[in-house]
Design brief:
Strand content: 5-15%
Helix content: 25-40%
Largest sheet: 8 strands, parallel
Low-confidence stretches: none
Shape: globular
Oligomer: single chain
Strand order of the largest sheet: 2-1-3-8-7-4-5-6
CATH topology: Arginase, Chain A
Number of strands: 8
Number of helices: 12
CATH architecture: 3-Layer(aba) Sandwich
Structural class: alpha/beta
């Protein structure tokens, strides 16, 4: 592999905003637009080692690395497909309504994620980010949860096809990363770790700790199912008790991360209580772990997040800044030009600093396990389910 020439590469094309289910749908593309514009206003792209590059549209060869040929064909022909046939394949529903140009828009998101993976794998860039990506619910044969094609899974499959032997995927979206887990359920070359709200209270209703992978790949699907109401300190404590140990044992060649920010307390579709500061701490941890365990090769993707003005733009700008190796100070003011643009686009007065005013200090797992704490019980369930498969110590002290 050639030596990295850029610290950060961002595949970008304004047509990524064409992935649009229409007015009133929670997955509004304005959130991606606002995030990219906020990063530009804060100077994230004003450096020689930060590059934006064109976005190729994924072809059928790429899409079929994960998706069944019949499903790809149906999505391509969706303009002529009847309602019953659309619903059979998971779109034309309330979550995934049909929109004009759906095939091209969804394939472009996949193309951006694969291009980001290519830049990292070839050494052209240390890190790469696709904010429009992270569509982790799509299954090989049907759409699900606002996701038509599964760009994280296709990017990982592409890395494997290019010779990667071990790829780790860490998903911090509030919803279980079910589609990516399903794609690699039987493949020990891919370690999938999902920290999410318990399936007992949130879509998609999967991701229990005992779901550990298929035959020959036991322990390579990892699920941390957190109770509703979990906040910064408890969430970070759970992360610290599971993720670093598994990444150290697995030693991935590439770290792929999904950064849905619907864990935020203001998110309208879920029930965790993180702040932008807690999410920023998670981003910092994943960046550090990429350098510690994946030779710095880090592919970061967007995902969910439905507080479109005050949460997604700030959290994803922190992601881009962190990936550029120039993290933003939490108290950084939001530029007035961006505030005016966001106000004009949304009719809202956004929060004017890059922090929610919280400095999370999670209790170390080494301090001991509290059996009365539901988050600690969730952590113990995950550790008991997967740590033995990796030869890891189950002790709590």
């Amino acid at each position: 592999m050639e030596q990295a020439k850029a610290s950060l590469t961002v595949p970008w094309d304004d047509r990524l905003l064409d992935y649009d289910f229409g007015p009133g749908h929670p997955l509004a593309p304005v959130r991606v637009d606002l995030a990219m514009r906020l990063a530009r206003h804060l100077g994230v792209f004003d450096h020689d080692d930060v590059a934006t590059v064109p976005v190729p549209t994924a072809d059928d060869v790429l899409l079929r690395l994960v998706h069944h040929a019949a499903y790809v064909d149906v999505v391509r022909a969706s303009a002529e497909t009847g309602h019953a046939e659309r619903v059979r394949y998971g779109f034309g529903t309330e979550d995934n309504p049909y929109f004009g140009g759906m095939y091209e828009a969804a394939a472009r998101v996949v193309g951006a994620s694969v291009e980001a993976a290519r830049r990292v794998w070839t050494g052209a860039s240390a890190h790469a980010v696709n904010l429009a990506g992270g569509l982790h619910h799509a299954m090989p044969s049907h759409a699900s949860g606002f996701c038509v094609f599964n760009d994280p899974a296709v990017a990982i499959a592409w890395l494997l096809a290019e010779g990667a032997r071990r790829v780790a995927y860490v998903d911090v979206d509030v919803h279980h990363g079910d589609g990516v887990q399903a794609a690699f359920w039987d493949d020990p070359r891919v370690l999938t770790i999902s920290l999410h709200e318990s399936p007992r209270t949130l879509f998609p209703g999967t991701g229990l700790p005992e779901d550990v992978g298929g035959g020959g790949a036991e322990g390579y699907a990892v699920n941390v199912a957190l109770p509703a109401g979990t906040g910064d300190e408890a969430w970070l404590r759970a992360f610290d008790a599971v993720v670093p140990q598994l990444l150290a044992a697995f030693a991935p060649e590439v770290l792929v991360t999904q950064h849905g920010c619907d864990t935020h307390v203001l998110d309208p579709l879920a029930h965790l209580r993180l702040t932008v500061d807690g999410q920023r701490n998670a981003i910092e941890r994943l960046h550090r772990l990429a350098h510690e365990h994946a030779s710095g090769r880090w592919l970061a993707l967007g995902g969910g997040g439905y507080e479109l003005v005050d949460v997604v733009p700030r959290t994803w700008t922190h992601l881009l800044a962190e990936a550029s190796e120039r993290p933003l100070a939490p108290a950084t003011p939001v530029p007035g030009e961006w505030l005016a643009y966001a106000r004009a686009r949304t009719g809202r007065d956004p929060i004017a600093t890059m922090t929610d005013g919280h400095d999370p200090k999670p209790r170390s797992w080494d301090s001991g396990y509290d059996p009365a704490d539901p988050v600690d019980r969730a952590v113990i369930a995950t550790r008991r389910a997967v740590f033995p498969w990796h030869g890891l110590d189950l002790s709590v002290y």
